[in-house]
Amino acid sequence: QVQLVESGGGLVQAGGSLRLSCAVSGRTFGSYTMGWFRQAPGKEREFVASIRWSGGTTNYAASLKGRFTISRDNAKNTVYLQMNSLKPEDTAVYYCATRRSSLTTYEYWGQGTQVTVSS
What is the Cα–Cα distance from 50 to 70, expressed in whole angstroms? Predict the structure, then answer.
């Protein structure tokens, strides 16, 4: 059973930083991709970033590249999302997800962690 548990969300002032973590269990990491998504109130869920567990190839939403960084720690089975220069419009629930790299649809999702950026 694959389980994803996010942590690290909270309240931060505009211009501040947060690092989200996603602890992964029950997955063989060799050919999988991890992703971060977010959903703001009243909006659709949107892609933030992804990383291939093997090789570490990353992909970012164009609007977030340069402020957000995705990384992974193989030893800890954890994926991170470093968020810098946060803006009020970054306020959302952030979700971690995983899929086999051969697929385009994410198979498993975490419960989400709230990020609130105050102005």
Answer: 7
38 and 50 in contact (C-beta within 8 Å)? no
Q: Report residue 7 as tokens.
A: 């942590």
Query: What would you report as the CA-atom Rg of the chain, rounded to the nearest whole angstrom?
Result: 13
pLDDT in tens, 38-89: 999 999 999 999 999 888 899 999 999 899 999 999 889 999 999 999 999 9
Question: Could you identify the residue written with the tokens 């093997």?
Answer: 54
Q: Which amino acid would we find at residue 86?
A: L
Instruction: Identify the helix (H) or strand (E) that includes residue 12.
Output: strand 10-13
Is residue 111 pLDDT above 80, yes or no?
yes
